[in-house]
Amino acid sequence: MRLDRLRAFVLSLPHATIVKQWGENLVCKIGGKMFLIISLDGETIEGCAFKCTPANYARLTTEVDGIVPATHNLYKSHWVQLEDPDALTEARFKEHVHAAYDLIRTKLPKKAQAGLL
Questions:
Q1: Is residue 100 pLDDT above 80, yes or no?
Q2: HEC per residue, the chain
């Protein structure tokens, strides 16, 4: 997926933001909590990590070549790293990003969720 299309997709999600953080990384957030990390090499996507359910974490990391547990202890919270951009079709990748967004949004405190309405 091209960076411009990924940015546009993320920003189409209600109240989603993208900030540059940790050097050359774009961190996608809802309510200040991250749901997707895009590692860049200039303007090229080098890799992505996203939050998923425990069941999807187990399935993706064992059944899909090119997806591994995320680094920096994120794996403990069921984050996966997409190392091979061809591991998922663009449509499936968008589904996983949207699911990650929904997971984080629903775990926000009630007051934060109410502020997003």
A1: yes
A2: CCHHHHHHHHHHCCCEEEEEECCCEEEEEECCEEEEEEEEECCEEEEEEEECCHHHHHHHHHHCCCEEECCCCHHHHCEEEECCCCCCCHHHHHHHHHHHHHHHHHHCCHHHHHHCC
